[in-house]
Amino acid sequence: MRDVRAVEIDGFYVKLKPIDESDFSKIIEWRNNPDNNKYLNQSYKLTMPLQRKWYNDKYLKSNDILFMIIVKKYNIKIGTIGINDLDCENKVGILGRLLIGDTNYRGSKELIEAMILIYDFIFYHLKIENLYGHCVIKNEKVISFDKKFGFLPTQKVVFPEYCYLNSMELIEMVNNQERYEKCKPNFAKIIDFYKIRDSHAT
User: What is the pTM for the complete model shown?
Assistant: First the structure.
């Protein structure tokens, strides 16, 4: 797990860097923002001591992997993305902690590339066969976005502990490599379009 957590994933517009203490202030800022917090599993104000305690006592002892999304051109942090409950033996994981704290990058090419990078990492590097995801039912934009990448609602809930948090009901969905590969070209075309456009602009 330590070796997997050390992986840095490099793309054209963004890179995914394993989180460390230098990221804590940004994470606290984003997670305490009311616009973000309404869909998070956090009913309290996050502080630096609580963040450090979570990192040392829970995260480092878990099978979770969390990345910071960094825009390479400006070297700025825009959000987080990760995998929870990673079980490489049974080839199962849960997509988690997607949070775009910088609102300028919601729905952006940088977000799209970050999602391609994380899915490629999950399906091709970690060899996960069933990738689950949980989203607040009212968060229709995220659910729609996930479905465009291949996620479908599960026929039978596999992780009920993630389906009801802080008085919010969540939908459970699942994806696999086959469905992802059918959807990926649609998003790859978007990234290619921006690469061509941006190369002409320089």
Answer: 0.94
